[in-house]
TrEMBL record:
One function term, GO molecular function aspect: RNA methyltransferase activity
SUPFAM superfamilies reported in the protein's UniProt record: alpha/beta knot (SSF75217)
Gene3D superfamilies linked to this entry: 3.40.1280.10
One BP annotation, GO: RNA processing
Record key words, sorted: Methyltransferase, Transferase
Protein's UniProt keywords contain Transferase: yes
InterPro entries per record: Alpha/beta_knot_MTases, rRNA_Methyltransferase, SpoU_MeTrfase, tRNA_m1G_MTases_N
Start and end residues of each tRNA/rRNA methyltransferase SpoU type domain: 33-162
Protein name in UniProt: SpoU rRNA methylase family protein
């Protein structure tokens, strides 16, 4: 087994942050905990995605605190989550919801995104609001064998983002 040095790893990565790739957008539109936004922002950098977040009094601070890369990242600010999702569908983006529903696609069966895709993440306790579920083209389920009902929203979003980016 070969362990790569920091220098080798840096040589394989981008020289600077992207401004907006816009092919994958992680959208935790109903966040409960700011720490999850920071984690998702880091995932976005890793997979070349953007983050769509609602304008809340605490959101900017949560992103700044969670941005361990300490550089500009691609963030879309959303005033009206349901209206924003509607606009994404009208722009012909695929809208994928991470939610436990009948007929959901298992994470293992997801294929890399071939077109602009929005990954909708619901509230940590309540999931995706009913008024937004009609705007989701496909639901994704992350199978679990433990006693919990779901994963942390940042973990779930990261797993789906890696899969859709073709990195897992």
């Amino acid at each position: 087994m070969w362990v790569h040095t920091r220098r080798e790893l840096r040589g394989r990565r981008r020289r600077r942050a992207h401004s907006c790739w816009d092919h994958l957008i992680l959208a935790p539109l109903w966040p409960k905990y700011g720490v999850n936004l920071g984690t998702l922002l880091r995932t976005c950098d890793a997979v070349g995605a953007c983050l769509a977040v609602p304008r809340r009094p605490w959101t900017t601070e949560a992103l700044a605190k969670g941005n361990t890369l300490r550089r500009e990242s691609c963030v879309h600010w959303v005033n009206d989550p349901v209206g924003w999702l509607r606009a994404q569908r009208e722009a012909e983006s695929a809208v994928l919801g991470v939610e436990l529903v009948d007929g959901a696609t298992r994470l293992a069966d997801l294929r890399p995104a071939r077109r602009r895709t929005v990954i909708v993440l619901g509230h940590e306790s309540d999931g995706i609001p009913v008024e937004a579920t009609t705007l989701v083209d496909e639901a994704v389920e992350i199978p679990m064998i433990g006693t919990g009902l779901s994963l942390n929203v940042a973990v779930a979003g990261s797993l789906v983002a890696y899969k859709l980016a073709g990195l897992s």
